[in-house]
Write a structure and sequence with these properties.
Length: 255
């Protein structure tokens, strides 16, 4: 499949990595539906990207909301053959903090959004994709997870976040094996330190310091580089059931 033929749902598509994917898909002729809870940013993004872009408010922790948004997106785009899961939160906090142990509700919220939300979107998208007409390779769709290098080298304060990102990696292969019967591939991307809205709020000297931690290139990752990898995964059929680190060879330190 070519990216120009993509009918893509992108969760967390109103900003950051998700928005970069939406921009690239639209620029190359595909259609996108951005699912997010940032209504102002999502509506503006859809307006700027043009007629092939759509925005839907969707809380990925709600199964009913996810199912409804996927159905609406597929109807608006005339199909669905790509899902990119970018919705997520960092939820950084020490398990034993200054104010006492982390509340279980705080840990659970990170799990609900990052891990369960990804699963809910996966199954809703796959249920639609399985009805697509197959390509010459028998392919009907592609699902991409956003993991993190924290899945492998979680830092202090990332117990919840790292657990979710490791969980996303862990379900990639089982889902790829199951969905193979329907011609649906499943992949994960594990970004390193990327220039996202969260990092953009930090002082420039802090951003530069973070960039220098990357062996090569010694800078923050660019969202468009993430989007280019999404395109490659979509177009290279043999990529399936694997997690690709996109990190400039960084290996995170304990803190």
């Amino acid at each position: 499949m070519k990216i120009a033929d993509a009918r893509a749902v992108i969760t967390g598509g109103a900003s950051g990595l998700g928005h970069a994917v939406a921009e690239r898909v639209c620029a190359l002729g595909g259609a996108v539906a951005m699912l997010d809870v940032q209504d102002a940013a999502g509506t503006q993004a859809a307006r700027e990207l043009g007629a092939r872009a759509h925005y839907y408010n969707c809380d990925v922790t709600s199964e009913a909301a996810v199912n409804a948004a996927m159905a609406a997106a597929a109807a608006a785009m005339g199909g669905l053959n790509l899902l990119v899961n970018c919705a997520g939160i960092s939820g950084s906090a020490r398990t034993l903090g200054k104010n006492g142990p982390m509340p279980g509700e705080q840990y659970a919220r990170v799990i609900q959004i990052n891990l369960i939300g990804t699963f809910l979107c996966d199954k809703a998208a796959a249920a639609i994709m399985q009805k697509n007409a197959p390509s010459e390779d028998g392919e009907r769709g592609v699902i991409i997870h956003t993991s993190s290098v924290a899945a492998f080298e979680g830092q202090i304060g990332q117990a919840a976040y790292s657990a979710t990102k490791a969980g996303v990696v862990g379900m990639t292969l089982p889902l790829a094996r199951e969905f193979a019967a329907f011609g649906i591939r499943v992949m994960s991307i594990a970004p390193g330190i990327f220039h996202t809205p969260m990092l953009a709020g930090l002082p420039q000297e802090v951003q530069d310091s973070l960039g220098r931690q990357v062996p090569f290139p010694a800078r923050l990752g660019r969202p468009e580089e993430f989007a280019r990898l999404v395109q490659s995964i979509f177009e290279i059929t043999m990529l399936n059931g694997e997690t690709i680190r996109l990190d400039g060879a960084i290996r995170m330190q304990p803190k």
